[in-house]
Amino acid sequence: MSHTAHIPSHRKPRRNAPKTALRAGVASGVLSTIAVAGAAGTAQAEPVTQTIEMPTITADLSTAVAASAEATQQVAQDMQTQAQEDAAAATAAKSAKKAKAEAVRKAEAKEKAEAAAKAKAEAEAKAQAAERASRTEARTTPSSTSGSNAATAVSTSSSSSSSSATGSAASIVAFVKAQVGDAYVSGGTGPNSWDCSGLVQAAYSSVGVDLPRVSQAQSTAGTQVSLSNLQPGDILYWGGAGSAYHVGIYVGGGEFVGAQNSSTGVVQRPLSYDPPSGAVRVL
After folding, report:
1. What is the bridge-based pairing of β-strands 193-194 and 183-184?
2. pTM for this structure?
3. Which domain covers residue 158, as residue numbers?
4. Euclidean distance between CA atoms 167 and 18, whole angstroms
5. Taking 90 as the threshold, does the pLDDT of residue 31 lie above it?
């Protein structure tokens, strides 16, 4: 027997296998839990890594925002440009409308002026026709005592005045006689068509004497003379002195030459054919 046999053993009794397995399982579970926790901890650490990468994400976002702002600004510019173009188009349309209205107004004014001119011409033509009719009536039927007195004076003049002209008077008489047969045209001054005052003016111009153009002024261009004391070359007038409506030239022998009207033209007639109202002597 060993000398230690009597000494109690201090070794711990062996644990049985089930308990050992249990403990091992528990330990393994603990370690597994720690491992899972560690893994979880590692998994939870990843957001920290993403947080570190946020500046890159923020930079991309800033770029996108800047691009969006630029696009918005471009849209605003486009809208402003469109608004300016629309305003310019509206202004142009307004100007065109105004120009059209002005053109229409001018056209209407022109039409009115032409109508007024036509009416005036017609009125003048009627007045001339009335004057011619009045002279014709006076030739056939004296209408007043003054007309009879004028005819008497003319008759006396034709018998007492000289029928021969000399000097400038002869040239004037020759000139007007040369135009007998020419046409009467209102406003005519020759060489083949005349009105009454145009013929008288041209006759005196042929000897270097300037006369007014119209009959009213020609009826006061010289010295008033009596119809009983006429001389060749005297200017005869019909109507009042200063308001005469017709003139002619006394050519002697009790006759005159004048551009009467569009029906007769320039004629030579006796004074009794159309007795004048008065006469003026220029030479």
Report:
1. parallel
2. 0.47
3. 146-281
4. 181
5. no
